[in-house]
Write a structure and sequence with these properties.
The chain is mainly alpha-helical and 161 residues long. Helix content is 59%, strand content 4%. It has six helices and two strands, in the order ββαααααα. The longest helix is centred in the middle third of the chain and has 25 residues.
């Protein structure tokens, strides 16, 4: 019995590991391995592509001077990139929930598919999973989340071997 600050303390008692506990751990490990073999669902890839695709907004008015410069072979002045259309709140919520479910799956699969445990990539996914951005920041948030998923998928390699 240890004494800390004059108050006796005892270590918490641990229950012994039973054969049933060992079987449960082996089953959980086998299920994780089978998930890793099955691969990444196609709908996740489709969601990532949807978020990372260009979402062009309305086109700006053309300038007549640009056509003249192009005809005589001079470069046109730089223009701002087109604005992106925001996601509807329903689409943003649907995609964010799908990415959160994918994070749970990737946490189970990644250790079995990558030789060196991807600590930084998984940490980034966990941080993004717990964020709740403002509605006007949702597209940026989902793009960061999609890029974090892609980074981990790149480490995992191709499913086709």
């Amino acid at each position: 019995m240890a004494v800390a600050g004059g108050v006796p303390t005892t270590a918490p008692k641990r229950r012994p590991v039973t054969a049933n506990d060992v079987k449960k751990r082996r089953l959980a490990h086998a299920l994780s391995r089978s998930l890793a073999v099955e691969g990444i669902p196609d709908d996740l890839i489709a969601m990532v592509e949807e978020v990372l695709s260009d979402r062009p907004g309305p086109a700006g008015p053309g300038r007549k001077f640009d056509n003249l410069l192009a005809r005589i072979g001079l470069p046109t002045p730089r223009q701002r990139p087109p604005r992106t259309m925001p996601l509807s709140p329903e689409d943003a919520t649907r995609i964010a929930e799908r990415f959160r479910r994918a994070t749970r799956l990737l946490l189970q699969i990644a250790p079995h598919r990558i030789a060196i445990y991807p600590t930084e990539e998984l940490r980034r996914l966990l941080v993004l999973r717990d964020l709740r951005p403002a509605p006007d920041q949702m597209l940026r948030y989902l793009r960061r989340y999609a890029l974090a998923i892609v980074a981990l998928l790149d480490l995992m390699g191709d499913d086709e071997e």
